[in-house]
Amino acid sequence: MGAVSNGCFSSVFTSPLENEVFLKEKSFPRLLVSNKFLKVNKISCRKSESGIQENPTSNRSSKNNMEEYNIAMKKMMRSPYEYHHDLGEWILGMNYTHITNNLIVGSQPQKPEDIDHLKQEEKVAYILNLQQDKDIEFWGINLQSIVKRCKETGIRHMRRPARDFDPDSLRSGLPKAVSSLEWAISEGKGKVYVHCTAGLGRAPAVAIAYMFWFCGVDLKTAYDRLTSKRPCGPNKRAIRGATYDLAKNDPWKEPFESLPDYAFENIADWERNLIQGRVRGLRGT
Fold first, then answer.
1. Annotated catalytic residue: which of 8, 45, 150, 196?
2. How buried is 169 (Cβ within 10 angstroms: 0-12 exposed, 13-18 middle, 19+ buried)?
3. Tyrosine-protein phosphatase domain location, by residue (predicted)?
4. Active site residue 215
């Protein structure tokens, strides 16, 4: 699909393996890396059956945290993907994917140097953080140092927390998160980096909801386009639920929970206009 004026979809949609090679060394996990740089600039989260080995230099606490997190991910998201926080010990501490020309979805920045990379290499002007405080504390991230570096480099840091592995929290938080994302993209000052912890649940859900509500495509198209580039397991029902909440203009409307699974996978033009107005109305809240 060619470029469009609002930057929703463009020629950026290519094969996730295009121009990439696998680096295979005994001392490294099996990673997707750039031909030009020894860094993760696409996605380094692999299916659990792929046999990735943990970095042998990781401490026991980090390993225990990753195991605990991945167990919760597989249970709540029914996803075979894993988050490897310890990649940051020897390589750029993020994994991310370009979704459009101005939208990147990825994992949490772990240190100020990650902010420098996003600014210098990816021309990021906004960061939208979907983590709760307890998520950041769990991984031992110094958020203050990251926010400080954002200010120093001219990146606008925004937060719209949602509870991890909680579809109801995601559903209720999506409108405000998409409001921040849509505003940042509309400003046109640079790319927007949207992240949660692993970049596999909350962050891609926000990006998909944005594409669904503002880019004129149905939910399946938005979902398939993102997940074909970044394999992940965002909760589609939460997006449908948030769509229902925003489009509802009748207090006697049938409850969402009683609707069939395909309900609100698509919306009429008047519903999209209503949703866009209500989402834009959340700016500054």
1. 196
2. middle
3. 95-252
4. no
